[in-house]
Specification:
Elements lengths: L1 H8 L2 H41 L4 E12 L3 E12 L2 H21 L7 E13 L16 E15 L5 H11 L3 E8 L4 H26 L3 E12 L4 E3 L21 E13 L1
Antiparallel strand pairs: 1-8, 2-4, 2-5, 3-4, 5-7, 6-8
Helix pairs in contact: 3-4
């Protein structure tokens, strides 16, 4: 009321300036309110974007398997000889070892596939009976009565079809111990690569099916890891090749089959 009374007492010119001032104040107030709302809205939008975070990422597993027959046979052949003197034992061992080596060469086994991995000389001792009556009058020092020599070759047979004949031939040539027979794949890297590709394809297929169910598309790969089972050589029993005593018929060699498995975990970004 007081404000209205003061306004009525103003002259017409002052009343015009008062109305202009009120309009200007109202306009400034509106601008301030608009700026406040825009500023607040921008802050809220920023918060919403932060809450949304990164794109959806899902990890899927894949497995790939590849099977193949081993293509090489690895073994050790030992020539064991004994003699009353070291020279006698060495002479016999050298002759029989050379016969084994010559046979391998004739059987198309490359020089790199037959190498010496052990040459050991063991003195053979005679131990006197324990002294039962003191003082002991006999010499209790062990005495050398002979020597034993073991010459061991590591052999790789790359033609499995000849494995049985080579095994029998090695024994006939002079080896009296054959052991550590193992079937293996000479170059497993190609098999590993094939199994890995199958595992990755399996993971991709699973990701695409999952994306279809979610109504999304598979994007880029953001993470990858791999593990697998790579079997070692397959042992083969060699009881038929004992310590000499005649030549057994050539055995029928069955290499079996090796299987390589690769497992992958692939994390995809879903769009």
């Amino acid at each position: 009321m007081c404000g209205m009374k003061i306004y009525e007492e103003l002259s017409d010119e002052h009343k015009i300036w008062a109305r202009k001032g009120a309009l200007l104040f109202a306009a400034l107030l509106n601008v301030f309110l608009v700026l406040l709302i825009v500023s607040y809205g921008t802050a809220v939008w920023k918060e919403i974007k932060m809450i949304r975070g990164p794109k959806l990422q899902i990890a899927v597993e894949g497995e790939g398997k590849v099977a193949a027959k081993p293509d090489v046979l690895k073994l050790t052949a030992t020539v064991l000889t004994e003699g009353a003197s070291l020279i006698d034992a060495q002479k016999e061992n050298t002759g029989r070892s050379n016969a084994v080596t010559d046979f391998l060469k004739k059987s198309s086994v490359a020089e790199k596939d037959a190498k010496t991995v052990g040459y050991n000389i063991y003195p053979q001792y005679s131990y006197p009976r324990p002294c039962r009556v003191l003082p002991c009058l006999e010499d209790e020092t062990p005495k050398i009565i002979g020597y034993q020599i073991r010459h061991t070759l590591a052999i790789t047979i790359r033609d499995i079809t000849k494995a049985g004949d080579i095994l029998s031939g090695v024994v006939e040539a002079g080896a009296n111990e054959v052991s550590s027979l193992e079937f293996a794949i000479d170059e497993p890297d190609a098999m590993k690569a094939e199994a890995r590709k199958k595992a990755i394809d399996d993971a991709r297929l699973k990701a695409e099916r999952l994306a279809e169910g979610l109504g999304k598309r598979v994007g880029k790969i953001v993470d990858f890891s791999e593990s697998g089972y790579f079997p070692g050589p397959i042992p083969f029993a060699a009881e038929a090749f004992g310590k000499g005593g005649g030549v057994a018929p050539s055995p029928e060699i069955q290499p079996g089959e090796n299987e390589i498995t690769v497992n992958v975990s692939v994390t995809y970004e879903f769009k």
